[in-house]
Prior knowledge:
Radius of gyration: 26 Å
Number of domains: 3
Subcellular location: Membrane; Secreted, Extracellular space
Main location: membrane
Strand content: 25-35%
Number of helices: 8
Pfam family, one: SRCR
Largest sheet: 6 strands, mixed
Helix content: 10-25%
Membrane topology: Single-pass membrane protein
Distance between the termini: 85 Å
Amino acid sequence: MKLPLLHLLTLCLTVGELSGYNSNKRAFLQAKRSRKDYRRLKKQEGALKLVGGERGAFEGNVEILHKGRWGNVCDDEWDELEAKVVCRQLGYANVKAKPTSNARFGQARRRYWMDNLLCGGDESELSKCRFDGWGRTDCRSGEAAGVICGGGGEDLMPNATLNRVDSQDKSKIRDVHPRGIAVRLSGPRQGRLELKLPDSDWGVVCGDGWSLLEAAVICRQLGLGYAAQAYQTSFFGGNKLPMAVSGIKCRGDERHVAECLHDELLDCPGVGENVAGLTCASRMADLVFDHLELERTAHLEDRPLYFLQCAMEENCLASQAYQVQRETDRWHWETRRLLRFTARILNAGTADFRPSVPKHLWEWHMCHMHYHSMEVFATFDIIDSSGRRVAEGHKASFCLEDNQCLHGVQPRYRCANYGDQGISVNCSDIYKYNIDCQWVDISELAPGPYTLKVAVNPELKVGEMSFDNNAATCKLLYAETFAKVHSCVMGRP
């Protein structure tokens, strides 16, 4: 039987609609199953979630589940590789993962579970990366690590909107307020910072991104010496005062805070608890890195993993070394190539350099048989011509002591026997090239020209008179049989 043309068209349309319906139904069911799997995974060991993001589930501070309890991740050594793993684990595949630090999405709400993460970038879960151990950290509430998973995913905004919101415009305070601003501290040398803008009452400053660099400018402007501490807290009160500005960003050498940048639009996560505060001191330490000693002592060493087992426990080798350990029983005889050098750090300031955490929180390291007082005291990075970090040295922790002092100065600090740690004025802490972890593992690095950067106090956790002599940026020529470090320039971490 022949059907009228109209009926044929209707039948074809119905079949097409049915095909589309089935396709959509399959996609819907698959998405539904994925959401069920995601909800189930959120309750498993090592599950992740992002908190504090205001634009959607694709951004926020990272929290991880361990032993049934959620905890934060510290931003020490947090970069694109770790952010990439987080976004992939959360289901944002093939996106640009942007790491955030300094509690970008608000103060850490819980204890820190992870610190000093080292990911290769291809791990399936963040918990499979190397780190210092569950709960081992010296991080404060303002050091929460976060991510922005910048593409793909049903909760994501269009890229144009994402880019516009994420690139908050900053400008100099004096350009926006040419009539000037007043500054005061709530206490004699310690307290919350208050600003008075033209035609406004006194208000507080948002603690988001607040650091020793910004605090140093305030102490200098008020004639109170140097910045000893920078706080992001409501401990000093001020949570009932209006918020004057947010996002202050200084180099640290400005004479007046009006020369610093700030957010053109007020934006402060966790307003009530996120108030900028500081402590000023008349005397301060000042570390000076000896770049000449670095150039003189740098050399290559090929060493079997059998002799590096203690260093492996402290995450001092490249990721490939741990992969070899997992994949072969004869990993002990595999050889790693190390770029070794001596780091000599002089305290040329007017006060002793002391660890950033109290003594009762120091970590005992069985391999080295002494307590370590700072998790990150120095970083060693090798950078290629495009500015990409291609190798890094990682020392899990550091012991600070007086190894060599100028004539007439008695050493006061020793690591042995649970002694007090620090670096006295006019004394040096020396990490010789022959000790564990005083190297960069370059086993997978191709020969060629690179940049080597060694920095002390890189996270600015301890106040100094100046940070301009804390890092040496050097040229590195790496050949098959030798390495030469030369032409070092001093600068900031």
